[in-house]
Design goal:
The complex is a heterodimer of chains A (293) and B (264).
Chain A: H1 13-48, H2 64-72, H3 82-116, H4 119-134, H5 137-150, H6 155-179, H7 184-192, H8 197-232, H9 241-250, H10 256-284
Helix pairs in contact in A: 2-10, 3-6, 3-8, 3-10, 5-6, 6-8, 8-10, 9-10
Chain B: E1 8-16, E2 22-31, E3 36-40, H1 47-54, E4 62-67, E5 70-71, H2 72-77, E6 81-84, H3 96-106, H4 111-124, H5 140-152, E7 158-162, H6 170-187, E8 190-195, H7 198-204, E9 207-212, E10 217-223, H8 238-253, H9 258-263
Parallel strand pairs in B: 3-8, 3-9, 6-7, 7-8
Antiparallel strand pairs in B: 1-2, 1-4, 4-5, 9-10
The chains are: A mainly alpha (293), B alpha/beta (264).
Chain lengths: 293, 264
């Protein structure tokens, strides 16, 4: 326990806004910097005729402004813009990812609580949980889609299950670590009160595990989006970002900017998930700064 | 004081660990109600182990331990004692108020009763105005006062303290010593206090139990006949120095290396 005596005065509201503005500015500077690097590499690469690790040209490295403007152009002549489609694909994939994230989070959390209570279960189950993550998701995905398909489950739910498969593991591992994190003295204190197992779980282990849980949820947030995108491929789902990536891949040589634009949308979706967890963490964990992972 | 049943009664107690180390042997001790008793000795004399056995946090290998006339295990289940460790062991996601109220929540006290009791305790340990602070916003001495308030919250007859001021600086420690005596007087509880500071033991206690190491045993008991209530002046009285010398000599006779005992 830290024994530093600091009376922290409440921070004035203005300081928070100023910090927020500084952060936004930093993000913009970072994006501009990345943009500059990309364009500079392409400019130099084309002039010098760089061919390693790949030849630099219009197809391999489209201008970033062209990727963005591809979003505003119609996908078919006279039809809606690419952005219109991307929005609907993102909503669809986002739905799959969200259901997978919640499902995986709940399963991972429950598993951790179970494992925290029994050393025998930890010894017995943990290796299989670890092995489950060493199997390539591309091998598991078709089995899940086909297996659930024969049970009459809608394909997008099968994709959610694949997302959950990627999500539950970090949640289970980190939550378990968090539940086992209280020091012996904290447990001894509970014992001195003759506290029940349930009391120890609710009053000590769970609150102590929350910073660990949120660390895991941040990893899982982006993993669930990746899981949903990858899961759409074997499920042959055309309504989401994964399906779009497969399609645009086939036409890459003629329209590379569409694939790149879709990649940007995928990244934005992952960021949105991450940001949602970050906000939830800020709201739930109001404690010592060093304890916020 | 009509109460004659001992607050703590220990008969023929010994404790050996699985490693083969004998931590305690042949311990017999009776603590009278409302007594302030200190256990003092060099590191490895088993004083903290003895305290934990009284609290049923570890089991003795042999012997009988009774608290308030019941087996130690029953006494723990009945919430007969509160405990304070060297570290405050506060839960840092809880405010000062909620840390103090933790045992009361476990005892299923109503919200109103808890709030009223926490207010009393904040006044007792002089932490009014800090109820909504978090532990990491407090100094070490303030954290320890929260821990004391928490231990007293459900008004246990017995308070077990394991070097509670060992990690604090000398000035904070002397101030908290005086506060503890005031709290002891106000609450009417019995205190068993583990320390490695001879002046602290003499200043606080009605009796000092001197222990020696390897294996841990009681080397002697010093009755502290300094007048009550003790004040800042008590430390300057000749009798205080006589008693400090007495305890020191008994520690030496028990084979304790005084220097290492104080530097522990």
């Amino acid at each position: 326990m830290a024994t530093v005596a600091i009376e922290q005065p409440p921070r004035p509201r203005g300081a928070d806004t100023a910090r927020g503005a500084k952060r936004v500015a930093l993000v913009i500077v970072g994006l501009a910097f990345f943009w500059g690097i990309w364009e500079a590499y392409r400019w130099i690469g084309e002039r010098l005729g760089i061919t390693w690790p790949f030849p630099v040209n219009e197809t391999t490295m489209p201008h970033i402004h062209e990727m963005l403007s591809a979003l505003t152009e119609p996908l078919q002549p006279g039809g809606p813009t690419l952005l219109h489609y991307e929005w609907h694909w993102a909503l669809f994939t986002g739905k799959e990812a969200l259901v997978g994230f919640v499902l995986g989070g709940v399963i991972g959390f429950a598993l951790a609580v179970l494992l925290a209570h029994s050393r025998i279960l930890r010894r017995g189950l943990l290796p299989y949980i670890v092995i489950s993550q060493t199997v390539p998701i591309l091998a598991v995905a078709p089995m899940v889609v086909l297996g659930l398909g024969t049970k009459g489950v809608e394909p997008w739910i099968a994709v959610s299950v694949i997302a959950a498969y990627l999500t539950f593991f970090p949640v289970a591992m980190n939550t378990l670590r968090g539940l086992l994190s209280p020091d012996p003295r904290s447990l001894e204190l509970m014992r001195s009160y003759a506290a029940s197992r349930n009391d120890v779980l609710w009053k000590l282990r769970l609150p102590a595990s929350l910073p660990f849980v949120f660390s895991a949820l941040k990893i899982s947030a982006t993993a669930s989006v990746i899981g949903a995108i990858i899961g759409e491929t074997p499920a042959s789902i055309q309504d989401g970002l994964g399906g779009a990536i497969v399609n645009f891949n086939q036409y890459y040589s003629t329209a590379p900017t569409r694939l790149w634009a879709t990649n940007i949308v995928c990244a934005a979706l992952g960021l949105a998930f991450f940001a949602a967890v970050l906000i939830a963490e800020r709201l739930v964990l109001r404690r010592a700064p060093e304890n916020v992972a | 004081m009509t109460e004659t049943r001992p607050a703590v009664s220990i008969k023929g107690l010994s404790k050996s660990f699985k490693t083969g180390v004998t931590a305690l042997t042949g311990i017999d001790l009776e603590v009278r109600p409302q007594e302030f008793i200190s256990l003092i000795g060099p590191s490895g004399c088993g004083k903290s182990t003895l305290l934990r056995i009284i609290g049923d946090l570890i089991e003795p290998s042999e012997g009988i331990v009774e608290v308030n006339g019941k087996p130690a295990h029953r006494a723990r289940l009945d919430h007969d004692y509160g405990i304070v460790f060297q570290e405050a062991v506060l839960y840092d996601w809880r405010t000062v108020s909620k840390n103090i109220a933790l045992p009361l929540e476990l005892l299923k006290w109503s919200r109103e009763k808890r709030a009223a009791r926490v207010r009393e305790l904040l006044e007792l340990v002089e932490l009014e105005g800090f109820e909504d602070n978090h532990p990491w916003q407090l100094s070490g001495g303030m954290q320890q006062r929260v821990a004391i308030a928490r231990a007293l919250s459900f008004d246990p007859a017995l308070l077990l303290m394991d070097e509670p001021f060992g990690a604090l600086d000398e000035m904070t420690r002397e101030r908290l010593n005086l506060e503890l005596l005031r709290i002891w007087d106000a609450s009417g509880s019995t205190i068993v206090f583990v320390t490695h500071s001879i002046p602290e033991a003499v200043f606080l206690s009605t009796r000092v139990v001197v222990m020696s190491a390897r294996p841990g045993r009681i080397a002697g008991i010093v009755e502290v006949d300094l007048p009550q209530p003790r004040t800042g002046r008590t430390r300057e009285e000749p009798r205080f120095f006589e008693l400090v010398t007495d305890v020191r000599e008994r520690l030496a006779a028990g084979g304790a290396d005084i220097v290492s005992a104080e530097a522990e």
